[in-house]
Amino acid sequence: MVHWGFIGCGSVTEKKSGPAFSKVERSDVVAVMRRDVGKAKDYAERHGIGKWYGNAQDLINDPQVNAVYVATPPGSHAEYAIAAMKAGKPVYVEKPMAASYSECLQINRVSEETGIPCFVAYYRRTLPYFLRVKQLIDEGVMGNISTAHIHFAIPPYATDYDRNHLPWRVQKEIAGAGYFYDLASHQFDLLDYLFGEITHVQGFTTNVGKLYAVEDTVTAVFRFQSGILGSGNWCFVAPEDTRTDRIDLVGTKGKLSFSTFDFSPILLETSEGIQEFREENPENIQYYLIQSIINFLNGRGDLPVSTGTTAIRASYIMDRILGKI
2-122+285-306: which CATH number, 3.40.50.11270, 1.20.1250.20, 3.100.10.10, 3.40.50.720? Predict the structure, then answer.
């Protein structure tokens, strides 16, 4: 039986992840922690959880907790994940894995030294929508894939204009960088899942809107070990009526287009015409990955598809694009 403790119980745990830990067989949530202990208590009472803490170490030291979910902003992922593993407790860490590639290395080093597993919330690897994309690629319906192109553009969030209360996602010391770090992490991990490791990458960044200190516009080119070439463009200061969320895969026999976040219909274009594919997400979008982790920890399943070993590669690519390494 896996008894979870949550370090951080903010919005991501309300529906995306939190309920899944109690829905999976042989798993429950026994404690939560938040620095604002009043909010921790509120979350615990609303979700039927018996204990709450205002200090992470108290939760980690709780003898009833035997696995830890780190659901804080990236700036504290390494600290909490390492503390949990040193206490002998497996960890499930929100994405991106940490605020920098170097911190990811530290997490993986401790995991290797202690023999305690670390998993990362790149749950798109388990969603039917992206499994369909992988199936189409593996079936060869597009022939040999030559290029992968990421197109992403959204307008600023309303909170981006409040210089006195900027979102944590654009505060480098908390998030590691800006929205690129938060959102592109999913895209690079997904491409890693579909095509394998990216071995060469170059990127450029700028700040067009001057709403905050970190980058708001990014472009990159990259090459997979397999030889597939890729490119990406990200803009977080697009016009109000603009939203682009698309990945295009071009092959010798066709083109496949799909989204990362909107889950718009998957479109396959070949000489036979256009085919459309739709897939449903689970109610709690992280459910399938969490289920695989719990089954593994209970000795009832294979190693999950998203671990510290796979997740670190997305952080490496992003840090190279941002010039952090």
Answer: 3.40.50.720
